[in-house]
Amino acid sequence: MAENKQNNQAKPQDVNKLLQVRREKLADLQAAGKDPFEITKYDVTYHSTDVKEAYTAHEAELLAGRQEPDVEGLDDAQKKEVLNNDYNERRAIMDASPIHVSIAGRMMFKRVMGKASFCNIQDLKGNIQVYVARDQIGEEAYADFKKSDIGDIYGVKGWAFRTKTGELSIHAEEMTLLSKSLQILPEKFHGLTDIEERYRRRYVDLIMNDDSKKVAFTRPKIIRCIQNYMDGLGFVEVETPVLTTLLTGASARPFITHHNTQDMDMYLRIALELPLKRLLVGGMEAVYEIGRTFRNEGMDPMHNPEFTLMEAYLAYSNLDGMMEMTESMFKTIAEKIFNKYTFNWNGNEINLEGKWKRISMVDSIKEVTGIDFKKEMSVEEALKLAKEHDIEVEEHQHNVGHIINLFFEKYVEETLIQPTFLYGHPVEISPLTKKNIEDPRFVDRFELFIGGKEFANAYTELNDPIDQLERFESQLKERELGNDEANDIDMDFIEALEYGMPPAGGIGYGIDRLVMFFTESASIRDVILFPTMKERDRK
């Protein structure tokens, strides 16, 4: 107990002294031939929650039919005696058929009381109290235990029991120091108060913060659920190159590296799209990839330069097919992992049930501003409207399509709270998408918005090589006008399309954002174990 207070209340000037003490303790152990770092393996038979579940089931079986003691009308002393006798009888029954366990984990609490002590061991699944008695583990081992520090990793062998207060615990028969902690953990009730340090020292955050640990274990469950869902639809998961020679697949600034052997610059991929569509040409009719992508852009609660993207492409499908698949996938995750359809995210209560709203970009703008961009208008007219509504238009955006998108971003995007499929984007901002047959100014594309944020981007894929080349060439013109996110011309992809790509629907999901939503996390850095951070100042 004294050590807990010492660690938690230490002044900054005392920290170095405490750290030195820990190193001296390690040196003493090593000198005595008890170096914990020489231990390479420990036989773990249970985790903390497994112990509790096994004991509870065993208890229910052995004590079946046993009545609770009747203390009605008894004074306090009599009640105490009756309850104590009942406890001793129950303990005798349980101890006659003990559950022997072996666990391992980090010691998070210690209370020394002379010949016996209590500690708390935290492992993968939770934590459990351990009763440590000198007479049980031996005088020398008990003396070593009393010198232990919060944060030390212990192996514990013993049997499970329930204390008089009802807490399931382990009566230690053997305590083995498996690793010495040479650093001091943050104070338990406040953890890492500096949010930047939480992300930078994720290993400490996971020790101290149950919420962070929950998110860390929930993320792979969500990804596995997505994989199972996609596999069930007949999709094949594939891997495509991370290093590329061309900037293609999305509008974004890249990270550039250099291949020494070939003496050429290469990009870290900004999207997965074009390699996956090449596979459609090759006859793989349903493919998807979940992989890391990289965009050399700013950081905020929704953006990290290195992130996880999922893209999927389905031959003989279209925009409607992607909408149906997306809605079904989100509802499947909600049901199978969380057993609910309502989530609190970004300050809003989001309900995934029911049919999701579908609205065109121009109709959404008209609803909010009254401006009808569905009507034909000149660039000059659009520029005038933009000026009247305080919208800044860069030189490469001097066309109606870009201006429509700027209106949407300023006035509409943050109003789309409940799940909404926003479709009908201008052709100028969608170089890889099939034009709408009824109005070729727009394309068959949608974005999924939840809580005012984008979660998915989907197309009826452009499979006309002539049209695609023209779109690429238009992107180059934008680059000349200052758009540093414009794509290169991928002539190999054009050639692939010339062999014939089937009509298809395609979609991309930001996995990190998806995990943010389902775990109700406020920042993308909460769901990435090691987010990109500024380097510490080095003196």
The gist of it:
The protein is of the alpha+beta class. 38% of the residues lie in helices and 22% in strands. Helix 8 crosses helix 9.
Plain-language structure description:
By secondary structure, this protein is of the alpha+beta class. It folds into 2 domains: 2-185, Nucleic acid-binding proteins (OB fold (Dihydrolipoamide Acetyltransferase, E2P)), CATH 2.40.50.140; 210-356 and 418-526, Bira Bifunctional Protein, Domain 2 (BirA Bifunctional Protein, domain 2, 2-Layer Sandwich), CATH 3.30.930. It is built from 17 helices and 18 strands. It has helices at 2-9, 12-31, 48-62, 76-95, 134-137, 139-146, 195-200, 202-208, 210-232, 273-281, 319-338, 361-369, 379-388, 400-411, 465-480, 491-499, 511-519, and strands at residues 100-113, 116-122, 127-133, 153-162, 168-179, 236-237, 243-244, 255-259, 264-268, 286-294, 306-315, 342-345, 348-351, 357-360, 420-423, 445-450, 453-460, 504-510. The strands form 4 sheets. The chain has an 8-stranded mixed beta sheet, with helices on both faces. A 5-stranded mixed beta barrel has the order 1-2-3-5-4, surrounded by 4 helices. Strand 16 and strand 17 (453-460) form a beta hairpin. Helix 9 crosses helix 11. The longest helix is centred in the middle third of the chain and has 23 residues, at 210-232. The radius of gyration is 31 Å and the shape is elongated. The two termini are 37 Å apart.
